[in-house]
Amino acid sequence: MGPVREGRDMRSLRGIATLFRDATAVVAFVAIWQLVTVLLAVPVFLLPQPVVIAQAFATNLDAIGLALAQTTAEAAVGFVGGNVLGLVLAFVFVRSSLISRAGLPLAIGLRSVPLIALTPLLTILFGFGVLTIVVMAVLISFFPALVAGMTGLRAPGADALALMRVLDAPERVVYRRLRIPAALPYLFAAFKISAPASVLAAMVAEWTAANSGLGYLIIDAGARYRFPLMWAAIVAATAVAVVAFAAAAAAERRTIHWPVETA
Amino acid sequence: MTLEVHDHEFVALVGPSGCGKSTLLRLVADLDTATTGAIVVGGRSPVDARHERLCGVVFQDPVLLPWLDVLANVRLPMEVAGGGAAAPADPMALIELVGLGRFAHARTWQLSGGMRQRAAIARALVLRPQILLLDEPFGALDEITRQRMNLELLRIWSERRTAALMVTHSIGEAVFLADRVLVMSPQPGRIVAEEAVPLPRPRAIETFASADFLECVSRVTRRLLGAVEGTPA
Asked: Which of A76, A232, A261, B38 could form a disulfide with A57 if both were Cys (CB 3.0 to 4.6 A apart)?
Protein backbone atom coordinates (compact mmCIF):
# COMPACT_ATOMS: atom_id res chain seq x y z
CA MET A 1 0.00 0.00 0.00
CA GLY A 2 3.11 2.22 0.20
CA PRO A 3 2.93 3.83 -3.24
CA VAL A 4 -0.82 4.43 -2.98
CA ARG A 5 -0.46 6.25 0.34
CA GLU A 6 2.32 8.38 -1.02
CA GLY A 7 0.13 9.21 -3.99
CA ARG A 8 -2.66 10.30 -1.71
CA ASP A 9 -0.37 12.50 0.36
CA MET A 10 0.97 14.09 -2.79
CA ARG A 11 -2.54 14.70 -3.97
CA SER A 12 -3.61 16.36 -0.71
CA LEU A 13 -0.46 18.48 -0.84
CA ARG A 14 -1.32 19.52 -4.37
CA GLY A 15 -4.90 20.16 -3.19
CA ILE A 16 -3.64 22.56 -0.52
CA ALA A 17 -1.46 24.31 -3.10
CA THR A 18 -4.44 24.68 -5.44
CA LEU A 19 -6.60 25.99 -2.60
CA PHE A 20 -3.93 28.55 -1.71
CA ARG A 21 -3.66 29.66 -5.32
CA ASP A 22 -7.44 30.03 -5.67
CA ALA A 23 -7.72 31.91 -2.39
CA THR A 24 -4.97 34.30 -3.50
CA ALA A 25 -6.83 34.94 -6.75
CA VAL A 26 -10.09 35.70 -4.90
CA VAL A 27 -8.36 38.04 -2.41
CA ALA A 28 -6.59 39.86 -5.26
CA PHE A 29 -9.88 40.20 -7.14
CA VAL A 30 -11.68 41.66 -4.10
CA ALA A 31 -8.76 44.02 -3.39
CA ILE A 32 -8.81 45.39 -6.95
CA TRP A 33 -12.60 45.74 -6.73
CA GLN A 34 -12.26 47.71 -3.49
CA LEU A 35 -9.50 49.89 -4.96
CA VAL A 36 -11.41 50.68 -8.17
CA THR A 37 -14.70 51.49 -6.43
CA VAL A 38 -12.95 53.85 -3.99
CA LEU A 39 -10.63 55.53 -6.51
CA LEU A 40 -13.33 56.06 -9.15
CA ALA A 41 -16.00 56.83 -6.51
CA VAL A 42 -18.37 54.32 -8.14
CA PRO A 43 -21.95 54.98 -6.89
CA VAL A 44 -23.32 52.30 -4.61
CA PHE A 45 -26.26 51.41 -6.90
CA LEU A 46 -23.78 50.56 -9.70
CA LEU A 47 -21.24 48.61 -7.70
CA PRO A 48 -20.87 48.80 -3.90
CA GLN A 49 -17.46 48.50 -2.27
CA PRO A 50 -16.68 44.99 -0.98
CA VAL A 51 -16.31 46.48 2.50
CA VAL A 52 -19.84 47.88 2.31
CA ILE A 53 -21.16 44.53 1.05
CA ALA A 54 -19.40 42.80 3.95
CA GLN A 55 -21.03 45.22 6.39
CA ALA A 56 -24.45 44.54 4.85
CA PHE A 57 -23.72 40.85 5.15
CA ALA A 58 -22.85 41.20 8.83
CA THR A 59 -25.87 43.35 9.77
CA ASN A 60 -28.30 41.10 7.83
CA LEU A 61 -26.72 37.80 8.83
CA ASP A 62 -30.00 36.35 10.13
CA ALA A 63 -32.03 37.27 7.06
CA ILE A 64 -29.39 36.05 4.65
CA GLY A 65 -28.80 32.88 6.65
CA LEU A 66 -32.50 32.06 6.70
CA ALA A 67 -32.90 32.74 2.97
CA LEU A 68 -29.79 30.71 2.23
CA ALA A 69 -31.00 27.76 4.28
CA GLN A 70 -34.37 27.80 2.57
CA THR A 71 -33.03 28.07 -0.97
CA THR A 72 -30.41 25.40 -0.30
CA ALA A 73 -33.02 23.01 1.10
CA GLU A 74 -35.38 23.57 -1.83
CA ALA A 75 -32.58 23.18 -4.35
CA ALA A 76 -31.33 20.02 -2.62
CA VAL A 77 -34.78 18.40 -2.57
CA GLY A 78 -35.27 19.35 -6.22
CA PHE A 79 -31.81 18.03 -7.12
CA VAL A 80 -32.48 14.67 -5.50
CA GLY A 81 -35.99 14.44 -6.94
CA GLY A 82 -34.88 15.41 -10.43
CA ASN A 83 -32.05 12.92 -10.44
CA VAL A 84 -34.21 10.08 -9.14
CA LEU A 85 -36.80 10.86 -11.81
CA GLY A 86 -34.15 11.18 -14.54
CA LEU A 87 -32.38 7.96 -13.60
CA VAL A 88 -35.59 5.94 -13.34
CA LEU A 89 -36.58 7.24 -16.78
CA ALA A 90 -33.09 6.43 -18.10
CA PHE A 91 -33.48 2.80 -16.95
CA VAL A 92 -36.92 2.55 -18.54
CA PHE A 93 -35.76 4.16 -21.80
CA VAL A 94 -32.65 1.97 -22.05
CA ARG A 95 -34.66 -1.19 -21.44
CA SER A 96 -37.46 -0.37 -23.85
CA SER A 97 -36.70 1.29 -27.17
CA LEU A 98 -40.43 1.66 -27.79
CA ILE A 99 -41.00 3.76 -24.66
CA SER A 100 -37.76 5.58 -25.36
CA ARG A 101 -38.86 6.53 -28.89
CA ALA A 102 -42.11 7.93 -27.54
CA GLY A 103 -40.76 9.45 -24.34
CA LEU A 104 -37.44 10.98 -25.34
CA PRO A 105 -38.86 13.66 -27.69
CA LEU A 106 -41.30 14.59 -24.92
CA ALA A 107 -38.47 14.93 -22.42
CA ILE A 108 -36.41 17.01 -24.84
CA GLY A 109 -39.45 19.18 -25.57
CA LEU A 110 -40.02 19.77 -21.88
CA ARG A 111 -36.37 20.67 -21.46
CA SER A 112 -36.45 23.07 -24.40
CA VAL A 113 -39.09 25.30 -22.79
CA PRO A 114 -37.26 28.25 -21.19
CA LEU A 115 -37.53 27.72 -17.45
CA ILE A 116 -38.40 31.34 -16.72
CA ALA A 117 -41.33 31.06 -19.10
CA LEU A 118 -42.46 27.99 -17.20
CA THR A 119 -42.58 29.64 -13.76
CA PRO A 120 -45.99 31.33 -14.10
CA LEU A 121 -47.48 28.08 -15.35
CA LEU A 122 -45.91 26.11 -12.50
CA THR A 123 -47.22 28.68 -10.02
CA ILE A 124 -50.75 28.07 -11.31
CA LEU A 125 -50.23 24.30 -11.13
CA PHE A 126 -48.37 24.00 -7.85
CA GLY A 127 -49.29 27.22 -6.06
CA PHE A 128 -47.28 30.12 -4.71
CA GLY A 129 -44.41 28.76 -2.62
CA VAL A 130 -42.16 25.85 -1.84
CA LEU A 131 -43.68 23.25 -4.16
CA THR A 132 -43.25 25.36 -7.30
CA ILE A 133 -39.65 26.13 -6.37
CA VAL A 134 -38.84 22.48 -5.80
CA VAL A 135 -40.52 21.51 -9.08
CA MET A 136 -38.31 24.03 -10.90
CA ALA A 137 -35.20 22.47 -9.39
CA VAL A 138 -36.54 19.02 -10.31
CA LEU A 139 -37.07 20.08 -13.92
CA ILE A 140 -33.56 21.43 -14.29
CA SER A 141 -31.92 18.39 -12.66
CA PHE A 142 -33.85 15.66 -14.38
CA PHE A 143 -32.67 16.15 -17.95
CA PRO A 144 -28.89 15.83 -17.37
CA ALA A 145 -29.58 12.70 -15.29
CA LEU A 146 -31.74 11.21 -18.05
CA VAL A 147 -29.23 11.86 -20.84
CA ALA A 148 -26.16 10.86 -18.80
CA GLY A 149 -27.98 7.80 -17.45
CA MET A 150 -28.95 6.61 -20.91
CA THR A 151 -25.49 7.23 -22.36
CA GLY A 152 -23.76 5.64 -19.37
CA LEU A 153 -25.94 2.54 -19.20
CA ARG A 154 -25.29 2.01 -22.90
CA ALA A 155 -21.54 2.66 -22.54
CA PRO A 156 -20.31 -0.97 -22.16
CA GLY A 157 -18.93 -2.24 -25.46
CA ALA A 158 -19.84 -5.36 -27.39
CA ASP A 159 -16.97 -7.36 -25.87
CA ALA A 160 -17.97 -6.59 -22.28
CA LEU A 161 -21.56 -7.56 -23.04
CA ALA A 162 -20.34 -10.73 -24.78
CA LEU A 163 -18.36 -11.58 -21.65
CA MET A 164 -21.51 -11.24 -19.56
CA ARG A 165 -23.37 -13.43 -22.03
CA VAL A 166 -20.70 -16.12 -21.91
CA LEU A 167 -21.05 -16.04 -18.12
CA ASP A 168 -24.82 -16.42 -18.59
CA ALA A 169 -25.34 -13.35 -16.40
CA PRO A 170 -28.99 -12.46 -15.80
CA GLU A 171 -30.04 -8.94 -16.85
CA ARG A 172 -30.08 -7.79 -13.21
CA VAL A 173 -26.45 -8.84 -12.77
CA VAL A 174 -25.40 -7.20 -16.05
CA TYR A 175 -26.80 -3.96 -14.65
CA ARG A 176 -25.25 -4.29 -11.23
CA ARG A 177 -21.81 -5.48 -12.33
CA LEU A 178 -21.39 -3.74 -15.67
CA ARG A 179 -23.90 -1.12 -16.80
CA ILE A 180 -24.32 0.83 -13.56
CA PRO A 181 -20.59 1.10 -12.72
CA ALA A 182 -19.93 2.08 -16.35
CA ALA A 183 -22.59 4.79 -16.05
CA LEU A 184 -21.17 6.37 -12.88
CA PRO A 185 -18.66 8.72 -14.58
CA TYR A 186 -21.45 10.01 -16.81
CA LEU A 187 -23.74 10.50 -13.81
CA PHE A 188 -21.17 12.53 -11.93
CA ALA A 189 -20.72 14.75 -14.98
CA ALA A 190 -24.49 15.32 -14.83
CA PHE A 191 -24.40 15.99 -11.07
CA LYS A 192 -21.74 18.64 -11.57
CA ILE A 193 -24.03 20.40 -14.03
CA SER A 194 -27.29 20.05 -12.13
CA ALA A 195 -26.09 20.70 -8.56
CA PRO A 196 -25.34 24.42 -9.14
CA ALA A 197 -28.14 24.63 -11.73
CA SER A 198 -30.74 23.49 -9.20
CA VAL A 199 -29.70 26.39 -6.93
CA LEU A 200 -30.12 28.73 -9.87
CA ALA A 201 -33.52 27.24 -10.75
CA ALA A 202 -34.76 27.59 -7.18
CA MET A 203 -33.73 31.25 -7.11
CA VAL A 204 -35.40 31.98 -10.45
CA ALA A 205 -38.60 30.43 -9.13
CA GLU A 206 -38.36 32.52 -5.97
CA TRP A 207 -38.46 35.71 -8.04
CA THR A 208 -42.10 35.19 -8.84
CA ALA A 209 -43.36 32.32 -6.73
CA ALA A 210 -42.15 33.12 -3.22
CA ASN A 211 -41.72 35.82 -0.63
CA SER A 212 -38.66 34.27 0.94
CA GLY A 213 -35.38 32.67 -0.10
CA LEU A 214 -32.22 34.07 -1.68
CA GLY A 215 -33.85 34.78 -5.05
CA TYR A 216 -36.61 36.75 -3.37
CA LEU A 217 -34.11 38.54 -1.11
CA ILE A 218 -32.10 39.75 -4.14
CA ILE A 219 -35.17 41.09 -5.95
CA ASP A 220 -36.68 42.58 -2.79
CA ALA A 221 -33.45 44.30 -1.69
CA GLY A 222 -33.01 45.72 -5.20
CA ALA A 223 -36.56 47.05 -5.22
CA ARG A 224 -35.96 48.76 -1.86
CA TYR A 225 -32.70 50.31 -3.07
CA ARG A 226 -30.77 48.30 -0.48
CA PHE A 227 -27.98 47.56 -2.94
CA PRO A 228 -25.32 46.37 -0.46
CA LEU A 229 -27.81 43.79 0.89
CA MET A 230 -28.69 42.75 -2.65
CA TRP A 231 -25.01 42.20 -3.38
CA ALA A 232 -24.50 40.34 -0.13
CA ALA A 233 -27.32 37.99 -1.14
CA ILE A 234 -25.76 37.55 -4.59
CA VAL A 235 -22.44 36.63 -3.00
CA ALA A 236 -24.22 34.14 -0.73
CA ALA A 237 -26.03 32.60 -3.74
CA THR A 238 -22.76 32.30 -5.64
CA ALA A 239 -21.16 30.62 -2.65
CA VAL A 240 -23.99 28.06 -2.48
CA ALA A 241 -23.64 27.27 -6.18
CA VAL A 242 -19.86 26.93 -5.89
CA VAL A 243 -20.17 24.66 -2.85
CA ALA A 244 -22.80 22.56 -4.67
CA PHE A 245 -20.44 22.07 -7.60
CA ALA A 246 -17.46 21.36 -5.34
CA ALA A 247 -19.46 18.77 -3.39
CA ALA A 248 -20.42 16.97 -6.61
CA ALA A 249 -16.81 17.09 -7.81
CA ALA A 250 -15.53 15.78 -4.47
CA ALA A 251 -18.03 12.91 -4.51
CA GLU A 252 -16.87 12.13 -8.05
CA ARG A 253 -13.22 12.02 -7.01
CA ARG A 254 -14.03 9.68 -4.13
CA THR A 255 -16.09 7.32 -6.28
CA ILE A 256 -14.43 7.23 -9.70
CA HIS A 257 -10.97 5.86 -8.95
CA TRP A 258 -10.31 4.61 -12.48
CA PRO A 259 -9.42 6.56 -15.62
CA VAL A 260 -12.46 7.12 -17.79
CA GLU A 261 -11.97 6.49 -21.48
CA THR A 262 -13.52 9.16 -23.64
CA ALA A 263 -14.06 7.16 -26.78
CA MET B 1 -17.91 -28.27 -42.35
CA THR B 2 -17.05 -30.61 -39.58
CA LEU B 3 -14.77 -29.92 -36.69
CA GLU B 4 -14.18 -31.78 -33.50
CA VAL B 5 -12.14 -30.82 -30.47
CA HIS B 6 -11.37 -33.63 -28.05
CA ASP B 7 -10.81 -33.38 -24.31
CA HIS B 8 -7.39 -31.96 -23.46
CA GLU B 9 -6.77 -31.18 -27.11
CA PHE B 10 -5.47 -27.87 -28.45
CA VAL B 11 -6.87 -26.99 -31.86
CA ALA B 12 -5.92 -23.87 -33.79
CA LEU B 13 -7.94 -22.32 -36.59
CA VAL B 14 -6.01 -20.28 -39.12
CA GLY B 15 -7.32 -18.42 -42.10
CA PRO B 16 -7.38 -15.02 -43.74
CA SER B 17 -9.49 -12.20 -42.34
CA GLY B 18 -13.16 -12.59 -43.07
CA CYS B 19 -13.15 -16.37 -43.49
CA GLY B 20 -15.43 -16.75 -40.49
CA LYS B 21 -13.06 -18.25 -37.97
CA SER B 22 -14.15 -15.82 -35.25
CA THR B 23 -17.76 -16.49 -36.17
CA LEU B 24 -17.15 -20.19 -35.68
CA LEU B 25 -15.80 -19.48 -32.21
CA ARG B 26 -18.78 -17.25 -31.41
CA LEU B 27 -21.14 -20.02 -32.49
CA VAL B 28 -19.50 -22.43 -30.07
CA ALA B 29 -19.77 -19.84 -27.29
CA ASP B 30 -23.43 -19.18 -28.22
CA LEU B 31 -22.69 -15.54 -28.94
CA ASP B 32 -24.10 -16.07 -32.42
CA THR B 33 -26.69 -18.59 -33.57
CA ALA B 34 -26.20 -20.91 -36.52
CA THR B 35 -28.96 -21.15 -39.12
CA THR B 36 -28.05 -24.67 -40.17
CA GLY B 37 -25.85 -27.44 -38.84
CA ALA B 38 -25.28 -28.80 -35.40
CA ILE B 39 -22.83 -27.77 -32.72
CA VAL B 40 -22.30 -29.91 -29.67
CA VAL B 41 -20.36 -28.61 -26.70
CA GLY B 42 -19.64 -31.12 -23.97
CA GLY B 43 -22.57 -33.22 -25.20
CA ARG B 44 -24.95 -30.25 -25.12
CA SER B 45 -26.25 -27.56 -27.44
CA PRO B 46 -24.32 -24.26 -27.30
CA VAL B 47 -27.21 -22.64 -25.38
CA ASP B 48 -27.23 -25.33 -22.72
CA ALA B 49 -23.44 -25.31 -22.60
CA ARG B 50 -23.52 -21.56 -21.99
CA HIS B 51 -26.10 -21.98 -19.21
CA GLU B 52 -23.76 -24.49 -17.61
CA ARG B 53 -20.80 -22.21 -18.34
CA LEU B 54 -18.76 -24.91 -20.07
CA CYS B 55 -16.83 -22.40 -22.20
CA GLY B 56 -14.19 -19.97 -21.08
CA VAL B 57 -13.64 -17.21 -23.60
CA VAL B 58 -10.66 -14.91 -24.12
CA PHE B 59 -11.21 -12.10 -26.61
CA GLN B 60 -8.57 -10.04 -28.37
CA ASP B 61 -9.47 -7.21 -26.00
CA PRO B 62 -9.08 -8.43 -22.41
CA VAL B 63 -12.23 -6.49 -21.31
CA LEU B 64 -11.24 -6.17 -17.68
CA LEU B 65 -13.56 -3.97 -15.63
CA PRO B 66 -11.52 -0.92 -14.58
CA TRP B 67 -13.45 -0.39 -11.32
CA LEU B 68 -12.33 -3.81 -10.05
CA ASP B 69 -8.80 -4.92 -9.18
CA VAL B 70 -7.21 -7.98 -10.78
CA LEU B 71 -8.50 -10.42 -8.16
CA ALA B 72 -12.06 -9.09 -8.36
CA ASN B 73 -11.94 -9.33 -12.16
CA VAL B 74 -10.80 -12.95 -11.98
CA ARG B 75 -13.52 -13.64 -9.40
CA LEU B 76 -16.19 -11.97 -11.54
CA PRO B 77 -17.43 -15.22 -13.15
CA MET B 78 -17.86 -16.73 -9.66
CA GLU B 79 -19.79 -13.68 -8.50
CA VAL B 80 -22.00 -13.80 -11.58
CA ALA B 81 -22.56 -17.56 -11.31
CA GLY B 82 -23.34 -17.24 -7.58
CA GLY B 83 -24.15 -20.65 -6.16
CA GLY B 84 -24.56 -21.99 -9.70
CA ALA B 85 -20.82 -22.50 -10.10
CA ALA B 86 -19.86 -26.11 -9.55
CA ALA B 87 -16.52 -26.14 -7.73
CA PRO B 88 -14.78 -23.05 -9.09
CA ALA B 89 -11.01 -22.91 -9.10
CA ASP B 90 -9.14 -20.96 -6.44
CA PRO B 91 -8.87 -17.50 -8.05
CA MET B 92 -5.70 -16.65 -6.16
CA ALA B 93 -4.02 -19.85 -7.33
CA LEU B 94 -5.02 -19.01 -10.90
CA ILE B 95 -3.56 -15.53 -10.57
CA GLU B 96 -0.33 -17.15 -9.38
CA LEU B 97 -0.51 -19.58 -12.28
CA VAL B 98 -0.73 -16.81 -14.88
CA GLY B 99 2.17 -15.04 -13.17
CA LEU B 100 0.27 -12.12 -11.65
CA GLY B 101 0.74 -13.12 -8.00
CA ARG B 102 2.22 -9.76 -7.05
CA PHE B 103 -0.50 -7.87 -8.90
CA ALA B 104 -3.66 -9.42 -7.42
CA HIS B 105 -4.71 -6.06 -5.97
CA ALA B 106 -3.33 -3.91 -8.78
CA ARG B 107 -5.60 -1.68 -10.79
CA THR B 108 -6.17 -3.30 -14.16
CA TRP B 109 -5.51 -0.08 -16.09
CA GLN B 110 -2.04 0.09 -14.60
CA LEU B 111 -1.08 -3.26 -16.14
CA SER B 112 0.64 -3.83 -19.49
CA GLY B 113 -1.26 -5.37 -22.38
CA GLY B 114 0.28 -8.80 -21.75
CA MET B 115 -0.54 -8.69 -18.06
CA ARG B 116 -4.14 -7.74 -18.80
CA GLN B 117 -4.47 -10.70 -21.12
CA ARG B 118 -3.00 -12.95 -18.40
CA ALA B 119 -5.74 -11.74 -16.07
CA ALA B 120 -8.32 -12.41 -18.79
CA ILE B 121 -7.01 -15.97 -19.16
CA ALA B 122 -7.24 -16.51 -15.40
CA ARG B 123 -10.80 -15.19 -15.47
CA ALA B 124 -11.69 -17.54 -18.35
CA LEU B 125 -10.39 -20.52 -16.34
CA VAL B 126 -11.91 -19.74 -12.95
CA LEU B 127 -15.12 -21.73 -13.51
CA ARG B 128 -13.10 -24.73 -14.76
CA PRO B 129 -14.47 -24.69 -18.31
CA GLN B 130 -14.39 -27.81 -20.46
CA ILE B 131 -13.14 -25.79 -23.38
CA LEU B 132 -11.15 -22.59 -23.59
CA LEU B 133 -12.06 -20.45 -26.61
CA LEU B 134 -9.37 -17.99 -27.63
CA ASP B 135 -10.17 -15.37 -30.25
CA GLU B 136 -6.80 -13.95 -31.35
CA PRO B 137 -5.96 -13.35 -27.70
CA PHE B 138 -2.52 -11.90 -28.40
CA GLY B 139 -3.38 -10.11 -31.63
CA ALA B 140 -2.95 -6.67 -30.06
CA LEU B 141 0.40 -7.42 -28.43
CA ASP B 142 3.86 -6.72 -29.79
CA GLU B 143 5.83 -9.65 -31.25
CA ILE B 144 8.08 -10.30 -28.26
CA THR B 145 5.25 -10.14 -25.71
CA ARG B 146 3.25 -12.35 -28.01
CA GLN B 147 5.95 -15.05 -28.06
CA ARG B 148 6.25 -14.93 -24.29
CA MET B 149 2.48 -15.16 -23.92
CA ASN B 150 2.37 -18.19 -26.21
CA LEU B 151 4.88 -19.96 -23.98
CA GLU B 152 2.84 -18.94 -20.94
CA LEU B 153 -0.38 -20.08 -22.53
CA LEU B 154 1.08 -23.52 -23.20
CA ARG B 155 2.28 -23.78 -19.63
CA ILE B 156 -1.13 -22.72 -18.24
CA TRP B 157 -3.01 -25.01 -20.60
CA SER B 158 -0.81 -28.00 -19.78
CA GLU B 159 -1.45 -27.37 -16.07
CA ARG B 160 -5.20 -27.07 -16.50
CA ARG B 161 -5.65 -29.56 -19.33
CA THR B 162 -8.88 -28.19 -20.71
CA ALA B 163 -9.65 -28.48 -24.40
CA ALA B 164 -8.68 -25.33 -26.29
CA LEU B 165 -9.85 -23.85 -29.57
CA MET B 166 -7.88 -20.85 -30.71
CA VAL B 167 -8.38 -18.53 -33.64
CA THR B 168 -5.30 -16.83 -35.00
CA HIS B 169 -3.85 -15.62 -38.23
CA SER B 170 -0.31 -16.39 -37.18
CA ILE B 171 0.72 -19.74 -38.64
CA GLY B 172 3.77 -20.02 -36.40
CA GLU B 173 1.66 -19.43 -33.33
CA ALA B 174 -0.89 -22.03 -34.44
CA VAL B 175 1.74 -24.70 -35.09
CA PHE B 176 3.62 -23.97 -31.90
CA LEU B 177 0.54 -24.25 -29.68
CA ALA B 178 -1.75 -26.78 -31.26
CA ASP B 179 -2.13 -30.52 -31.64
CA ARG B 180 -4.00 -29.89 -34.87
CA VAL B 181 -4.15 -26.88 -37.16
CA LEU B 182 -7.29 -26.33 -39.23
CA VAL B 183 -7.01 -24.14 -42.29
CA MET B 184 -10.07 -22.13 -43.30
CA SER B 185 -10.76 -20.61 -46.69
CA PRO B 186 -12.72 -17.41 -47.31
CA GLN B 187 -16.00 -17.14 -49.21
CA PRO B 188 -17.45 -19.56 -48.51
CA GLY B 189 -15.82 -20.05 -45.14
CA ARG B 190 -14.96 -23.70 -44.78
CA ILE B 191 -12.23 -25.87 -43.39
CA VAL B 192 -10.12 -26.89 -46.37
CA ALA B 193 -7.26 -28.66 -44.65
CA GLU B 194 -6.25 -30.22 -41.39
CA GLU B 195 -2.64 -30.67 -40.35
CA ALA B 196 -1.64 -32.70 -37.34
CA VAL B 197 1.30 -31.22 -35.48
CA PRO B 198 3.59 -34.09 -34.46
CA LEU B 199 5.84 -31.93 -32.27
CA PRO B 200 6.49 -33.47 -28.85
CA ARG B 201 5.35 -31.74 -25.66
CA PRO B 202 6.36 -29.93 -23.57
CA ARG B 203 7.27 -27.45 -26.23
CA ALA B 204 9.67 -24.66 -25.45
CA ILE B 205 11.47 -21.84 -27.13
CA GLU B 206 13.76 -24.38 -28.83
CA THR B 207 10.75 -25.81 -30.63
CA PHE B 208 10.72 -22.78 -32.89
CA ALA B 209 14.15 -23.77 -34.25
CA SER B 210 13.41 -27.46 -34.77
CA ALA B 211 13.23 -28.89 -38.28
CA ASP B 212 9.85 -30.49 -37.53
CA PHE B 213 8.41 -27.12 -36.53
CA LEU B 214 9.63 -25.39 -39.67
CA GLU B 215 8.43 -28.27 -41.81
CA CYS B 216 4.99 -28.08 -40.24
CA VAL B 217 4.81 -24.29 -40.66
CA SER B 218 5.64 -24.59 -44.34
CA ARG B 219 3.02 -27.30 -44.83
CA VAL B 220 0.31 -25.16 -43.21
CA THR B 221 1.50 -22.11 -45.16
CA ARG B 222 1.17 -24.02 -48.43
CA ARG B 223 -2.33 -25.18 -47.47
CA LEU B 224 -3.33 -21.64 -46.53
CA LEU B 225 -1.99 -20.14 -49.74
CA GLY B 226 -3.79 -22.84 -51.67
CA ALA B 227 -6.99 -21.92 -49.83
CA VAL B 228 -6.85 -18.25 -50.72
CA GLU B 229 -5.71 -18.85 -54.30
CA GLY B 230 -7.86 -16.94 -56.74
CA THR B 231 -9.06 -14.39 -54.17
CA PRO B 232 -7.42 -10.97 -54.31
CA ALA B 233 -5.21 -10.20 -51.35
From this structure: A232
